[in-house]
Structures are given as structure tokens and as C-alpha cells.
Sequence to fold (654 residues):
Amino acid sequence: MALNPRRVRLLGVMLGLLLALTCLPTAAGHADESDDLLVELTSITPTVLSGGGELVISGRVTNQSSQTLTQLEAHLWRDATPITTLAALDAALADPQASGEAMQSPDATAQLGTGGELAPGATAEFTVRTDLSPGTAEQSWLSQPGAAYQVGVQVFSGPREIGGSSSLIAYPGDTRVDVGTIVLLNARPSLLPLESNADQLPVFADDSLSAEVAGRLERLLTLGEQDNVLVVIDPQLYDEVTALALPHALRLSDGGQSQVNSAGSAQAQAWLDRVNALMTSGRVARGLYGSVDLAQAVASGKADLVRQSATLPDGHLMAALPLVVAPYDGWVDEQSAAALAEVSPSWLLASNLGSSQLLHDANGVPLLSVDPASTAQPAANPVQARGWLLARQLIGGTQGVPSIQLVTTTAQAEMALADESWRTRHAITDLTSAASSAGTPNWPSETVASSDALAEATSRTEGLLTAWDELIELPDETVDPSNRVVPGAWSITFGRNSQAQTEWLRLASEPAMAVLSPDAIQLRISDWVTTSSEDNLLPVTVTNNTAYQLRVRVHFESDNPLRISVADSELILVQPGESATVRVSPVAEGNGVVAMRAQVVTSGGHPVGTPVDFTITAAQSGRVAWIIIVASGVVLLGATAYRVRSMHRENQEG
Fold:
């Protein structure tokens, strides 16, 4: 009976060990649990196997320990077990380098550092290679078409394995598969919707959006313009790029604004023009406004925010587009899916429900499986992500489950744009129409942690913005400015960095905090005396120290409203830097002194500015009322006493 070539090779290695009495590196297994060495793959060529040529793996190692590492060698490693099913692929991803061997040929080995030594914190590059031809002395055994394999490197310090890294590589051969591509266009929010100067110029927190439009978003849009690609656009991004295309200002570090800035405007307009042309293709959908993190928002008690972000005003250019929701990390659970039931999305994308079914149904919410390699957070190493994706596309295609790639980065776009003749891109609607009937989701047992800090900051900000909306007179807009602030703070683009998210809330709501500060609005009650019910009007002056036109009223509270009361004033408009006076009529039902408080409030009753305390002294006889105001600590009695005596004398003579 013929011997297995792998066993022959293993016996040869063992015999060499015995004869030479030396310690060569051990067979590949799990890397040590120590954190001594970081191993990163920077390239694997070719991208897929073809039955010949060379396999070349390059990368770098970093000594993360406090000691100099010695006798360092990198060895090309491979697992010759062909992966031909999605279940085997998932197992390989869950337990990489569970088996396999390090190769020993000179080309497959590289000494690291200086003479094999690497100081603490130092980095060294490596390249290892092997000939894939059938007649090579040391065979790789990566020889079965229509399968995927694991390849990589292992690093040894003498006989001890101290690190390694691996990736998947596909061997399509004559196999042909169908794939799908979804491009997600979104970005961290940077437009400060509450800030504007007298010319209503858009104000941005920084110039990050200009860089995104010129770089990542331009490349993603190029992919989106390819046939059969579905493009999902965050409406908030669309609104922000629309603002960027106009003359705009940047917020300075001291809180001021830059001069009018047109940098990036032309490029933003060109990008918008391409998006608008694409929207007529029928291959464009809208995402949640602000790319709200579905699962974490629901877990944090903010399901209403999700539903709010799923709906656009009728006048918005994207309002009629179908809704496709892309959750953070592709993670979907039963609660987050249920939160979308009312808004009827076309698809909820998911990568955590298993790889054997393309479609699932969650009580009427359609779930579409996407490749987990494209949704992983933090994002996988680009080399490993590419290998993972191509292997998934190959194996899934052979099993009748087409792989759908969600593209959010430039590296992912380059993968999707690469010419791989063995894969054919189809429209998502065609793939779903050809798929088997939707299955029932196997929901994960794990739950997403709530973000209590962000939820609390959001509630505070919502209170501020409610008062802002009631105060500020703004021109009609497609999307109310305050509604742009909160959804963006929950964006998946923050990567669940709650510190950055709460900082965005603070920065974006600063104008509201300023308008609601104690000194922004001042209230003054004039010193006043009346002796006649026909002249019973109290002048109250509101001074607006802000840069905005304000809509307010003056609210009065009485310690004894059964004796003396003052009704709230009507709503008044106060121009920036100016004052407005309103006259109110106190009502006295009895004699005596009553403490009062006046407070400027919004139309909804939210207090703003500092309240003013004063007293009213009333004396009533028949239809004539005598009311004395004590305002700002000054008692005005002289003129009043004279008038009271005169009235009393007139009554006696009458």
C-alpha cells in the first residue's frame, strides 16, 4: 500500500531530527498564549491558487515584550486539509491553525531581526515563499480545486513557537460562482446644524468630510456605479455633502468660525451629481438617518430613535427610496429586528445568523445574510479579510448560497473591483429571487451591552434641543436641524466609542447650551405704580443677548394666586442683540402683599434665563385697585402714598 506523502514527509523530518541531534521548530499548532510577539501579514500572492507558480507571504513582526528575543525565524505554514463546506469554513475561522505544518525549506524560512535578535519594541519585515509545482522537493499539498486552504507564518524562538498569523486562500480551479455587492455610503457626522452666522452658512466641526469625499467615498461611489451593485446611502451623509457643496465655514479651536471656505465644494457637488444620477437607476436605497446603531440603541432603551431615523420628511429627496438597514458588525438579535417592524424595511442586513441561508424572516422583517468578513468590527487585517471573503465566495457559491459583500472601506472596494473571472456579480434582487424560501432566524444567545452613558447624554441633549426648537425662529428646512444631532451620535461609524459619541453631542449642541445659559436672556420689570384699574398694565422687558431671533413669553408665578395673579404674556419675537417690551395686567382679588416671580419661557414652557423676584402690594375698594410693585429691591412708596390719600379724600367728599 502506498504511503501518504504527508506521512512520508513527517517521517523524514523526524529521522533528520534524530540523526542531526538538533532541535528544529515543532509542527504547526496553536501559537503560544504569550503577548511577546505581534505578527501581521502584509501581502499574500497570488490572491487565489491556480495549481502552479509560487506562494509568497510577506509581513512584519513586532517585539511587544520587555526582553530581547533571540533565534527568531519565520516559517511559511500551511494546513493541507481542503475546506469544501461552509461548516468547515466556519470551524476554520473559529479555530485557525488548529493543525498543519511549518515548512522547512530555505525559501520558506526567514531569519528575523539582526542575526535572529529583536530588541523590545523593534519591528522586522519578512518574506517567505514556496514553489507550488507538483515536482517540488517540499510539497505544499494545496492541490484540490474548488476548495479553500489556510496558509500563513509561524515564528519560533529556537524550538519554541512564540507567534503566528494565518489567512484563508481560495483555489477556484474551474469553479464559477455568483456573488452580490452592497455599497454602504456613510461617514461620521461633522456638520454642526445648530451653528450658523447671519448668512446661514453651513458650519462644519472639521474638514474630515472633504477628505472622505475626495478619498474613501469617491472610491465607494465608483464601485456603486458598476452594474448590479446595490448602493445604500445614509440620508445624513447626503444632507452633509449637500451643505459641503455650498460656501461653508469651519469651526475653529477657540469656538469661532473660519472665513467662508469653498475648499472641497466643487468636489462635493460633483459627487452629489453622480449620486443623483445613480438614484434614477433603481439600485439605490436609503439607510437609517445617521446610520444609527440598531442593536445598541434598542438595548439602551432608544428604540424610538431607530424608528425616527427610519422616516424622512416627505420633501426629502431620498424619502421615497426603499429602506435597507446595516447594523454595526452585522449583528442582529430578536429585539433589534422587532424594533423595525413598524417601518417595514426592504432588508435588514445580518452576518451573525449562520452562513447556510441567504434569507430569513423575523415576523415580517426580511433579513438578508451578508458575508461576516465584510462586517467584522474591528475590521480584519486587509490581507486576511480578502482571503476570508474569496474563500467564502467560493465555498458558498459551490453550495448554492451566494456570498454578498457589504463594502464600507477602500480596501473592500478594491477587492470588489478586482477582476476575478471565476465569480459573477448579480443584482441583489436576482439573488434573493433565486434563493430558497426564507428561514426562521436562529437568534444569538448573547446580548448587546447598553450604553448607559450615551443614553443619559442623549436624554439631556434631547431636552436642550426641545427648548432650542421652541426658541429659535428658523426658515423652513427639509430636516429640522435639531433632528440631525442625536441620530448622528449613535452612528455605527463611531465604532461604539461612547466618549467620542458624547463629545459629538456636546459639540453639536453647544449653541443650544449657550442660548439656554443664564445670561443669554435678561428680564427686567420696570418700577411701576398704578392707581386705577383702567391703567392696570405692567411693562416687562426681555433682552436678547444671543445671535438668534428668539420666540418667548414671560411666565408669572404668585405665592398667593387667589389674592394676586398675573397671566402669562403672549409670545413675542426678540431680535438678536435687541430688547422687546410686553405689557401684562395683574389681577388683584384682595388686599395684601404677595411675592411674585417672573421667568422667560419658551412656547412649550421651558425656562430660559434668570428669573426675577418681586412683590405686589394691592389695596382694593369697589372697582378701583391700588397696586404697588416692589421690583429689584426698590420700594416705591412716595408717589403711591400721595395718590392713595388723594383718592381716599375724593371718596369721602363723594
About this structure: The chain has a mean pLDDT of 86. The longest strand covers residues 607-621.
